[in-house]
Design a protein that fits this description.
This protein is of the alpha+beta class and 133 residues long. Helices cover 44% and strands 16% of the residues. It has five helices and four strands; from the N terminus they run ααββααββα. It has a four-stranded mixed beta sheet with strand order 1-2-3-4. Strand 1 (52-54) and strand 2 form a beta hairpin.
């Protein structure tokens, strides 16, 4: 017990001498324009076929038969597109953009949270590597 108290005292003094590193900076800026343009183009194409309506809050209505005919990857792509569309409209990135997709009868088909944080380098295809040779 006598050894434990001095050791804890030293640790407390050591901790008081050093500042904690600052938290990482969050991406608070808007989603890049290029991504917003691609998302809008994709969602407009889906809406043009009919049976698919969206709003600017990450919500959509789709025919249930069409939803269940899609693969899991296709459904995921639609949810991600809705999240990015909402982020583009709001002008901000989010780690948890809410997405809700309903069937034409109002049944909730999916409800999830999607990160819309982007890394501009990788979004533009650079990925941080030097591609010019």
């Amino acid at each position: 017990m006598r050894i434990l108290f001095p050791a804890l005292s030293c640790l407390a003094l050591l901790a008081a001498c050093h500042k904690a590193p600052p938290p990482p900076e969050s991406l608070a800026g808007p989603i890049p324009v290029q991504i917003c343009a691609e998302v809008k183009k994709s969602l407009d194409a889906l809406s043009a076929n009919g049976g698919f309506e969206i709003n600017d809050k990450g919500e959509a209505t789709i025919e249930s038969t069409a939803w269940f005919a899609m693969t899991a990857d296709q459904r995921d792509g639609i949810a991600r597109a809705l999240a990015f569309h909402a982020g583009c409209v709001s002008g901000r990135q989010s780690k948890d953009q809410e997405v809700r997709i309903h069937g034409e009868d109002g049944t909730l088909l999916t409800h999830r949270f999607v990160s819309t944080r982007t890394d501009l380098q990788s979004a533009l295809g650079g990925g941080g590597r030097d591609t010019a040779r």
